């Protein structure tokens, strides 16, 4: 899904992904939205970058970084025990990614530094697990316009 969305965007298409899986939110950008079904089955919600920022306190592309620190029980990803959500959001907001955070460890307070050092391998593995791949060799795709009847989906 990540590869198809990336290629479609590159070709100038606006991508709408229908899913209630929040992991997909990392694919959201100016040309990709996620359409979710609200709890009242008749309503749908369009998830844009603004909705992701409001819900997760990070940009869509940073969702795997947040998950790598905080974990995600629905995906069986164990986060860093003892690292608070507010600290994780500050780290990702300031450095942009866990990799850049590791480069700038000297700027962190001792508690955060110790937690991140102790869990470095887990954090990097978590990020790899949480990241939807966007460069998978899937061969040739025909992107001629499709006429989709959403009536049965919503």
Main attributes of the structure:
single chain, 154 residues, alpha+beta, DNA polymerase, domain 1, three-stranded mixed β-sheet, two-stranded antiparallel ribbon, 7 helices, 5 strands, 40% helix, elongated, 5'-flap endonuclease activity, 5'-3' exonuclease domain-containing protein
Question: What is the fold's blueprint, element by element?
Answer:
Elements lengths: L1 H9 L4 E4 L13 E6 L6 E4 L1 H8 L6 H8 E2 L4 E2 L6 H11 L2 H6 L6 H9 L1 H11 L24
Parallel strand pairs: 1-2
Antiparallel strand pairs: 2-3, 4-5
Helix pairs in contact: 3-4, 3-7
Description:
One of its GO terms (biological process) is DNA replication, Okazaki fragment processing. Residues 1-151 form the 5'-3' exonuclease domain. GO terms for molecular function: 5'-3' exonuclease activity; 5'-flap endonuclease activity; DNA binding. By secondary structure, the protein is of the alpha+beta class. The chain is built from seven helices and five strands. Strand 4 (71-72) and strand 5 form a beta hairpin. The mean pLDDT is 92.
